[in-house]
Specification:
heterodimer, A: 480 residues, alpha+beta, Heat Shock Protein 90, 2 domains, 5-stranded mixed sheet, two-stranded antiparallel ribbon, 7 strands, 9% strand, rod-shaped, B: 142 residues, alpha/beta, Rossmann fold, 5-stranded parallel sheet, 5 strands, Sig_transdc_resp-reg_receiver (chain B)
Amino acid sequence: MIKTSKSLGINNIVILIGALFTTVILMGISYYKTDKSREELLVSNQLSNKVLEIQYIISRAESSQRGYLLTNNKIYLQPYTTARKDYLKLLRELTLYNKNDYDVRIPISKIDKLDSIISLKFKELDKTIRLTKSGNEATSLLIVESDLGLYYMKDIKSLTNDIRRNLEINLLDKKTNYHVWNYISITLIILAFLIILISLINLITKIRPVLNDLVSTKRSLEESNNQLNNYVEHLRVANKEKDRAMLKNKLLIDSLKVKNEQLDHFAYVASHDLQEPLRTVSNYVEIFEEDYEDKLDDDARMYFGFIDGALDRMRKLISGLLNFSRLGTSGEKEKVDLNLCLNEIKANFQATIEEENITINADSLPVVEAYKVEITQLFQNIISNAIKFRKPDIAPIINISFEEESTHYKFKITDNGIGIKEEHLYKIFDMFSRLHSAKDYEGQGIGLAFCKKIVEMHHGEIWVESTHGESTTFNFTLQK
Amino acid sequence: MKLKRKLKTVLLIDDSESDNFYHKRKITKLGISDNIKVTYSGEEALEYLITELNGEYPQPTLIFLDINMPGMNGWEFLEHYEKLDIAHKGEIVLTMLSNSQDPRDINKTSQYKSLKGYYSKPLQDDYLEAIILKHFPDYVED
């Protein structure tokens, strides 16, 4: 938007405003001038009328004098007296009007001249009236007939006409002046309007693309807004579904947790309580063998041997089950250096490692957040399996490596042992699952079940890859 | 292992008749004591400890205590036992655990001052010999 207003041009707007301003001023001046001109006309007319009136008054005074002279009746002198008074009044008024605010004046010299001629005229009239009053009518008639009064009258008429003509000419001048000015101002106003028009057109042509731009922007905004709304709606629905799924998952996980806890508790109670009768059986088999040793034949001894073996195996199974149910209850997670764990395991297997010429290659392992006892057991069980299921004629080699991933560490423990048949791979992590008879390989089938549970406790996964007769690789992940 | 002299009295506290019989037989066979008193509950054992017999309290030399008993269990017995008059107490008290690997039980054994150790059931020959060597070295013949 800032860019747009710049492209519209500040000059344009300045011109526009300037032109408008000029127009307003010109119109104001024009109005003032017209008004002044009207006033001037008025004043000029008034002056002209006054002058004309003076002329009439003098005529009236003269005719009144003639009337008196002819009739000698004093009644005819009444208008004369009034005319004299009126003249003085008019003269006063004329002088007053002459001092107007406008440049409309009768030159003082002309007024003075008029006044002096009129004074002479009145003097002449007065004289004739005075002579007539005193009965000297002949002298009076002489004066009348001398044509002096006629000359005065002519002078007065020509002077008043001259004054009035001058006023008219003056007015005409002013009018012309006013008209010239008027033309100029009208031209200027038209010019200003043209400028306004041009800059408006200019503005419009400049605004139009911006406007079009704005309209298309608005349209595209609306469109994207719609899309956004759709997307939000879509998200909302998806979210709802996700929430529902999550709730379902949470319920499932909760119920699974409860079931797991119940299972652990069951395993604990079962194994704990199974131990007692087992111990009793074991104790009394022992007493029986002691007390009746002399009376037992070889068959009986063999039977007792089987019973002892079964009891021993059962004791181990139960204790394995008990320990399985207790995994993760021994302590809290802590920082565990797996290199130290591996050293501990190597120390535990020291004798076997030397005896069987076992090689254990390991990367520099990470420090992980884990249950220390359990994580050591995990590595130990897998290594122990690799040692246990070695090929009789080949020195065991165990390779331990790891990769760091974004959320997990991925470990790989590979041996060169007897391997696992593909059809058995799926069940090796099951509890009490054994692939070999006790005659060939000792064991309760709980080691890998432990491993699975330990890995799951660390939010990881465990899986196995194997080529039968060649090697086995245990893979597992641990959450960081 | 031969003993110069036998322990005066051994007290067994266990609700299991078969275990009591087995332990009594083991202790007798190893020649640890001829005077083995068997009680079947904590209450019975307390009663026995505070009852005079021939003008004196039994004060057993060694007490084996089972934890897992109906009614008053081993821990509850110890609560009462620790409040007893010194004249009523025995010499060495040991507990027998059904499973010596249970960390909860093992933690609890350290809470009782009168408890000198814990062993796993059943008390076999090697356990008993170890107990004598540890707690009664004076009784052992060189």
